[in-house]
Amino acid sequence: MILNNKYYIMRHGQTIYQKENRQINYFADENPFITLTEEGREMVEKTAQTMKGAGIDLIFSSRYTRTKETAEIAAKILGIEKINYDERLIDINLGVFMGKPMEDSHGFYLKGETVFSNKPEGGESWSDILERVKGFLDELEKQYQGKNILIISHADPIWLMAGYLRGFKKKEDFLKARADRENSYPKLGQLIFI
Q1: What pairs with residue 24 in β-bridges?
Q2: In a domain, 1, yes or no
Q3: What count of other Cβ atoms lies within 10 Å of the Cβ of residue 87?
Q4: pLDDT in tens, 155-166
Q5: How many structural domains are present in the chain?
Q6: What residue numbers does the annotated binding site for substrate cover?
C-alpha cells in the first residue's frame, strides 16, 4: 500500500487500571476517573521526546480522558497547538462485557475464525472497529499529502489500523501477523511508525 502520509500511531500511557493490573473492562463512555498515572505521563513524555525531530504536522486522538491526556502531553512537547478528536479512534465498545472481568470477554472474542465477527450485545466486533478506522485513515489519505501524522488511540483500534496501513486485506492476514508477532497489540505508550 502506497501512502500519501507518514503515520505515527501511539497507545495512551498507563492508567490506574493497568498499574494495579485490574482485569476489568473499561466502560465505553468517557470515564473521567481513568486518568494517566505518574508513570503513564512519564512514558508518554519519553515517547514524545523521540518524535521531536519527526516534524509532526497533525495530531488526531480518541476523546477518552487517557488518550486526551496523552495527546496533550505529546502536543506540548512537539509544539502542536491543535489536537483533532475523532470518534472513530475510540476504544472498542464491549457492550454487555463493560465493567465485567476481562476473562469473560476474552473467551467470547478469541474464538478462532469467528474472532472478527463476534459481537457482544450492545457492542462491537473487530470487523466493526476495522471499518471505522479504515474510514478514518482513507479520509486522511484523501485530505492530506506528505504530512507526518500522530494518531493516539487504544490497543484494538491501533493494531487494526497498523495492519490496514501495512496492506493487510483479509482477516487471515491480521490474525497471522498477530500470531507471528508482526502486528501485535501495542504496549502502553508504545509508538508504531508506518
Answers
A1: 101
A2: no
A3: 9
A4: 999 999 999 999
A5: 1
A6: 66
Bridge partners, 193 (sequence order)? 8
Whether residue 194 has pLDDT greater than 70: yes
Q: Could you tell me the pTM of the whole model?
A: 0.92
Helix ranges restricted to H, the chain: 16-19, 38-50, 65-78, 102-109, 126-143, 155-165, 171-179
Q: Which three cell numbers stand for residue 181?
A: 508477532
Q: What is the pLDDT of residues 51-74, one digit of tens each?
A: 999 999 999 999 999 999 999 999
At residue 84, what are phi and psi to the nearest 5 degrees? -100, 120
CATH code for the domain in which residue 92 is found: 3.40.50.1240
- Structural domain including 75 reads 6-193
Annotated binding site: 66
d(CA 165, CA 24) in angstroms, rounded, equals 30
The distance of Cα 174 from the centroid of its chain, to the nearest Å, equals 15
Percent of the chain surpassing pLDDT 70: 92
